[in-house]
Amino acid sequence: MPGRAVTEYRAPLFLAWQLTNRCGARCVTCCEESGPDKAWPDELTRAEALALGRHIVASGIPYVAFGGGEPLGVSHFWELAELLAASGVALKIETDGSHIDDAAAARLARLKVQCVQVSVDGATAEMHERVRPGSSFDAAIGAIRRLAVRGLAPQLVFVPTRWNIRDAVGTYDLAVELGCSTFVTGPLMRLGRAAATWDKLACSERDWQGAVEALRDHAKSRAAATGLSIYPWDILTELEERLASPQAMLLVVPNGKVKLLNALPFASADLRSDSLEEAWNAYREAWRSREVREFIEACRSDPGLLRHANETWSLEKVSGTFSRRKGS
Question: Over 60: is that where the pLDDT of 327 sits?
């Protein structure tokens, strides 16, 4: 039975919110090209973020996923998380674990955070820190242990590259040992830093499919409580699938603009000036625009267009069609 079309929802089912583009590492696979000095100069202020949080509650959006950069490194993260959780909004957090000490883990447990994803890109500190320069394997593992002991059973996220593909099974075993609910992986996304060094970084399709088969066989043989979740699409396929059937979601980047997808440079609204209702209507309309369709079609023959993924090009409605004006 087919699911509902995005046009049938009065509001998005979830909001993916990149609170900042700053983090402590320079991961070679980073889609957003985050880093210690990569905060956007116009990121939402505390007051603006809390106002948006209240609007999320009023709009009835049931689920918010915080990402970045490193969301727990934002000074007003806890105020925002508590505001949303107190109103029954389910929360997901994507993190490198560096800010999850005992006190933070206990606080997340009190908030009943539905999902915490911790990135671990190798079965050893040497491999993890090669893929994620500036990050700490011990911090990530420690965060997972602290969350698991408090009943949160985090998910471990593994991004495959030519360097660490042979660590996939070993990292799954690590997830089992740590008490993770799920080992999450999928094809390397050709975005951000990965796009810039694609030929050196990406593993071959043969190696990726071999890793998928090995993971499935190994997980089946272990019959562990830790699930195995493998995303089925590469980024080009996802673009085409989302064009045919957009998600019922809004992606909010650090300055409050609303993008269609992390791989697309188009921003259909700005939550500094547009309401969530206006942003939702603009998002759904933008997916039907000729320009978005033509950009996605062009990416198949020219994947280099994905280098624009972290830009925000505004879409302006003109005589029933859209024209692009390249923005900040």
Answer: no
Q: What angle do CA 163, 27, 20 make, to 5 degrees?
A: 155
Q: Among candidates 45, 55, 131, which has minimal Cα distance to 96?
A: 131
How far apart CA 254 and CA 42 sit, in angstroms, is 8
Count the neighbouring beta carbons within 10 Å of the beta carbon of residue 298.
12
Identify each DSSP E strand in 10-127 by its residue range: 14-18, 63-67, 90-95, 115-119
What is the C-alpha R_g of the chain? 19
Is a pLDDT exceeding 90 seen at residue 321?
A: no
b/e map 177-192, b = 16+ CB within 10 Å: ebbbbbbbbbbbbbbb
User: What is the spatial distance between Cα 216 and Cα 148, in angstroms, rounded to a whole number?
Assistant: 24
Closest CA to 263 of 294, 234, 226: 234
| pTM for the whole structure | 0.94
User: Residue 52's CB: how many other CB atoms inside 10 A?
Assistant: 19
pLDDT digit string, tens, across residues 194-233: 999 999 999 999 999 999 999 999 999 999 999 999 999 9
Q: For residue 130, is it left (φ>0), alpha (ψ between -120 and 50) or beta? A: alpha
Concatenated DSSP letters of 114-168: SEEEEE---SSHHHHHHHSTT--HHHHHHHHHHHHHTT--PEEE----TTTGGGH
Tens-digit pLDDT profile for residues 68-88? 999 999 999 999 999 999 999
- What lies within 8 Å, CB to CB, of 296 at 6+ separation is 239, 240, 243, 264
